Structure formats: C-alpha cells, structure tokens
Queue: 3 jobs
Job 1
Amino acid sequence: MATIELLHVADCPNSEKALVRLRRAVENTMPSSTPIKSTLIDSAATAARLPFAGSPTILVDGVDLFPTDGRTSDLACRIYLTPHGLAGSPTQQQIEAALAPHG
C-alpha cells in the first residue's frame, strides 16, 4: 500500500483545498484503507529534511507526485500548472491521474 503525505506550511491558503482534492482523488483511485498523512512544515530545517517544493507538496512513498527541480527550505506556497493556468494546487483530475499508477 502506498504512503501518501501532504506537506504544507501554516499560512498557505491552498493547503486545505489540496487536501480536500487529495482525499477525493485517493477515494477514487486507491484502496479504501489508504491513509493520508498531513505534515506541517514549521521551519526551514524541517523543509530541508524533506522533499519539500513549497506548500502544498504531495508525496507518494516519499516522492513528489508532481516532481520539479524546485526543492526549497523556504516556508512558501507552491504554484502548479493546471489546464486552467497557474494555480496554488493541482486539480483533482491531475491528482487522480498522478495517483493512478500507485493504486
């Protein structure tokens, strides 16, 4: 079973939206018992220890579901390219498509 984790910073306005979309996507593509761990990135040191690319970052088995070269230790929000332009979180459809190989 895959391990799914959402990395986020406290003041990121996109984290909750991403978590809602991630939960729905997991329900639609993964076994029903797949847990989602939510991890607060509260310091640059914590961000540096993890594959954090800005908030929110979605990991599956410790790997960024939307890989970039943009790892950061800054407590900053992340931007995603979506079919509708740049956004603060991926669409549910993007998350489902990225999760499908793991389900």
Job 2
Amino acid sequence: MLNGPFGVGKTTAAQALCAAIPDAMLYDPEIVGTALRSFTAGILPPEEQTDDFQDIALWPTLTVQIAEQLMRQYRRHLIVPMTIAHPGYFATITSGLRALTDHFAHVCLLAPLDTIQARLRQRGDDGGSWGWQRTITYLPRLAEPRFAQHVQTEDRSPQQVADDVLRVIGLTRG
C-alpha cells in the first residue's frame, strides 16, 4: 500500500513497482469510491454526505473486500496507491489488507509542500482544487509515526522511489 498526499507520486511509483514485482497489479480504491458515490447518489444519510467518498460507510470495507476478490481471482500481488489520512479508515483498511496476506506493507510517500504543489501545478491544478486543499491538511498528518514507513520523493525519480520502497519492504528488484 502506497499512501501519501495528492501529488506526491503514488501512482507513478505504483506503476514502477508493478513493473518490478512479478505478478503484481495496480488496485486503485479511488475507483471504488467513485463508483460508490454514483451508486449512493441521493440516498446517503447526512453524516455520509461530504465532499469525500471515504466518508461513505461502505468504502473502507468494500475496498478490502474487492482487494480480497482481486487477490483470490487473479493470484497477484496488489499495489494499492491511495491517500488516506483518517485514522479510523486507515486502521480498517490496513488491518483488513494485512489479514489477506503475509506480505502486506504500508509505505507513505512524502515531499515538502512546495514540491507537491509544483507537481500539482504541472497537472494543471491552479491551487483551488479539492486535492490541493487536502494536501495542505493531510501532509502534516501523514508525516506522523502512525503512517510510517516514510519514503521521500523530492529530487527522486520514480524508479529511485520504487527502489526505496522495495528496500523498505524487504524486496530487491527483479
């Protein structure tokens, strides 16, 4: 599982890890959240009607259940990039994923805020987006020990970040 703020390089690093780890596949829980947002439009209770699909009660458990089905059906290692700073959701998802495999690892990618904001600008974000605002809030939280192991992405190529992640989780390339 690759955690970290928006714009830190999770998806790019995840793609490099998929290339480096035999029988790996990318699993993005954001797609689960987007689908849930669509499925539940107009029926959510007030506490789930936020601007964050992670607040939909089904999202954490469904994220784990889909991971389980993907692993069972395709017998592949999952590389799971997601930004998750809410301690309860983080605990539910990491404990659920940990129960699925003996090879679970969580790594949180970090970089200084100005670096992340420059990357977001390169994507066309002018500073007013939801992700931009969440990054400002989430970056200090994600630096906390509960989200360790941390890997820095500043001045690192995607390949270097992937190599660092492989070292942290006790694997070597190829």
Job 3
Amino acid sequence: MIDPRTGRPARTDVLAVTVVAPTAYEAEIAAKVVFLRGSREGVAWLEERPGFAGLIVRHDGEILWSSRWSMEPAGAVPTSGQGGPDGA
C-alpha cells in the first residue's frame, strides 16, 4: 500500500487488520487508516469512533483489538482486559 503522506510504500508494524463499521465502505477506509497509522495509534484511532471495532495482527505476531471487538481472538492472552495483551 502506498502511504499518501509520502507517496512511497507504507512502513507499518501491521500485518493484517479487520475493522467492523456501520458500512462496508467505512470499514474499508478505517482498515486502511489503521494500517497506515500502525498498531498502537490505530487502536487508539478506532477507540475514538463509536460503532467501529477492530482486530490488528502485527508482523511480530502480537494481536491487538479495540474494546468494542466482541470476541477474544484465538491464541490471544489478554492481561488487563481491553485493548489487547498489553492493555493498549
């Protein structure tokens, strides 16, 4: 994916992202935004948007999810409740 801020290939720690939103159009755009922002900033961005939830898989295998994601991802080990294994 090309980063529109630089016109160059995106540099991100995100391997894959899934977003649930009110419409498919919004989910597609939100997934791209999260991908470009990176995992930590991407989760924070999702938390600011009512009706949006997301699951992010990083290149290092860590799985993060927003507080509105309704199911714990398989293999994830949450420690403090919301926002992924490290509470982000």
